[in-house]
Amino acid sequence: MKILIADDHDLLLDTVSAFVRATGTMESVGVSNLQQALQALDQQGPFDLVLLDYNMPGMQGVEGVKRVLAHASSPRVALISGEASREIVKKAMAAGAAGFVPKTLPASSLVNAIKFMAAGEQFIPADLMQAAEAAEPHPIAQKLTRREMQVLEGLSVGKSNKEIARDLDLSEPTVKLHVKNLYRKIDAGNRTQAALIAKEAGLF
């Protein structure tokens, strides 16, 4: 396998390249910006995988990924970065990237991820996926206030307005108002339907 690594940090570039060559089954070419990566595709390709640093010169965000993917050799492309938001990773994957590799990965995991992607698979670390899922609230949760979510949680376990009022230290008329508002926001007709909607959405 032949890997093109593009990163403007010399130490990291040398380190990753050394890890790749140490496998004995992969060779690597290192460059320091997007323009050099495109030139390497023309002059030293084809490559099984192109690893692009998200923040290096010339990338312009996910546009750099798209430019490399559009190359005539149709290389597989992945991002490597010390920091990248879930939104950036999602955009890169939507553009056709093979995955995302954090620079914080241990050497063995980094090499395995590179092999995995070069072989035609996709790679995103499980902890990044879990953190992303936790960071993205359900659309229903985004519609409701914190208090309305607390009231909905009470409804979802079958509590009466009186019980919810006691738990939240609210008056019963206030709870009734919250119930009415959350019914409207989640398009529920009654307590049972509201509880079912919350359950199906996995809110509690």
Automatic annotation (TrEMBL):
Residues 137-202 form the HTH luxR-type domain. InterPro entries: CheY-like_superfamily, EvgA-like, Sig_transdc_resp-reg_C-effctor, Sig_transdc_resp-reg_receiver, Tscrpt_reg_LuxR_C. CDD domains: LuxR_C_like (cd06170). PROSITE patterns: HTH_LUXR_1, HTH_LUXR_2, RESPONSE_REGULATORY. The modification 4-aspartylphosphate is found at residue 53. The keyword DNA-binding applies. Residues 2-118 form the Response regulatory domain. It holds the Pfam family Response_reg. Keywords: DNA-binding, Phosphoprotein. This is Two component transcriptional regulator, LuxR family.
